[in-house]
Amino acid sequence: MKFALYLIGFILVALIVSFLIPTPGAGGDPERNLPWQIEVDGQGGSTVFGLQPGHSTLADVRAALGDDFEVAVIARPDEIGAVEAYYNQVALGFVLARMVVTLDVAPETVVAMRERALKAQHMESTTRKITLHPDDLAQLEQARVRALAVIPTVNLDEATVIQRFGQPAERLQVSEKRVHLLYPRQGLDVVVDGDGKELLQYVAPRDFALLREPLRAGGGN
What is the pTM of this model? Predict the structure, then answer.
């Protein structure tokens, strides 16, 4: 599934906040849980922002990053959709960002949730945000995190990304101004976009195909 496709409606005009220089008042320890601080365990797992993609639950996300998020099914017309928790703003060390947490929910469960949903509204283009029933929201607390997507509030360039994350294992140019920098060992895809907002997508390294295979099949997005 192309996680980035679900993010279109969430990416708004960015706040101007430094990505490289600590910002006073960002909250917590400004030198911890930064986007480039990824720990790998050598067994296909990783830890970033105090969370383990593929293992941590929505309850863990709440404990680590706070409960100021909204949970909904985000779906295009031709797809069942994905269950996502969206932070409009979260402090990741001294970096402020928007974050989308994609939960690992079986398709049949998503369908059932959509049938019980309270309402649906259109977002960017034809993408819809479907508000879930309170009973379903409560059950999602134990749903595992499939992927994390971070949209920093400042524009990045490729040199800055490489400075912080190192040289990528693969560089996939998809247009004149859009490139994917792939870090399979860390379970990370950084999308650098000269015309839009940058996007950092994290999965467990063992699940890197979730990020790479859609790019291989579609020639990049």
Answer: 0.84
